[in-house]
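Reply to dn_fold:

You asked what the input looked like. This is it:
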Amino acid sequence: MSKKEILDSLIHRYPVLNICRDVIDQASDVMIECYENNGKLLVCGNGGSASDSSHIVGELMKGFLRKRDLSYEFKDHLVSIDAVRGKYLGMNLQGAFPAISLSSQASLSSAVLNDMGGSLVFAQQVIGYGQERDVLLGISTSGNAENVINAAVTAKAKRMKVIGLTGTTGGKLREFCDILITVPSETVYLVQELHLPVYHALCAMIEEHFY
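and this is what came back:
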């Protein structure tokens, strides 16, 4: 499907997201540009949004709607290292879009929480992982999660692009986003229910562009 078809399908299934259509399209362009420039996506959020962060990474780091065949050149290189094992790897491994869930680093997060404070758990990882060509996707139903906002400020200082995914108002996070997707609800579980189809559409558009 084309990007337009993916967006059409999204809006057909979730008509309330029609007001977000253009900004979702813009967010996909920013993420595609990131991957065209060999960048990576850093994703963060708390609670249910932490689970969403890991979900997004799972869709990007392996095939989502398509099987992402490796290049013939890389398959040949695998075989040149080990004929049997290389053939197996070449037939089964898939292309990946580099992505890291900052919410999944339990040992590091607990160390930062203990030594530095909970509001810094994501910002410290942006310091370590973030590069200018990368994108931060910060997820907060209210837009007011301090650790997500601090990560966004740190990402901006590293000249990264910042995409926010929030509820209706965007909260304080709005100030630090290059692109802000505000789904039309302020009720936490309803915001989370609308976030899932949004990020599925984003992952589908990225995959469609490259594969």
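The first strand starts at residue 41 and ends at 44.
Hope that clears it up.
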